[in-house]
Amino acid sequence: MNALRDAEMKMIGVWGMGGVGKTTLMKQVAEQAKQKKLFTTEVYIDVSWTRDSEKLEQGIAKIQQQITDMLGLEFKRKDESTRALELKTRLKEMKTLIILNDIWEEVGLKEVGIPCKDDKTE
């Protein structure tokens, strides 16, 4: 919970073998963060479909759409890179907890539009 309170902390990773309680832990952390009002909004997305390489190709657009749906946002543009910039700009205006659960393959957070600590652009 201390890491979630740290303004400099942009990302926390939780990984391990299946069945050890990662999902349960993250749901509990998200609930505590919500109760303590550490974030203005929370987004929880199950991305277990990343284990299927065919679905992974459409994954960026899918994650972008799920985030905007959960936050009540709407894209002005249709292409992924422009949507990523729009999403990144909006997310930087908000204090949002984003949990991507059950990731099997690498998901390009920058390509999605999720701000990362090493982002060089403002």
From TrEMBL:
Q: Which Pfam family, giving just one, matches this sequence?
A: NB-ARC
Q: Which protein, by its recorded name, is this? A: NB-ARC domain-containing protein
Q: Could you tell me the keywords of this UniProt record?
A: Plant defense
PANTHER family named among the record's database cross-references: NB-ARC DOMAIN-CONTAINING PROTEIN-RELATED (PTHR33463), RPP4C3 (PTHR33463:SF198)
Q: Where is the signal peptide?
A: none
Q: Which species does this protein come from?
A: Vitis vinifera
Name the coiled-coil region(s): none
Residues covered by the NB-ARC domain? 5-120
**Keyword Transmembrane helix in record:** no
- Keyword Mitochondrion among UniProt keywords: no
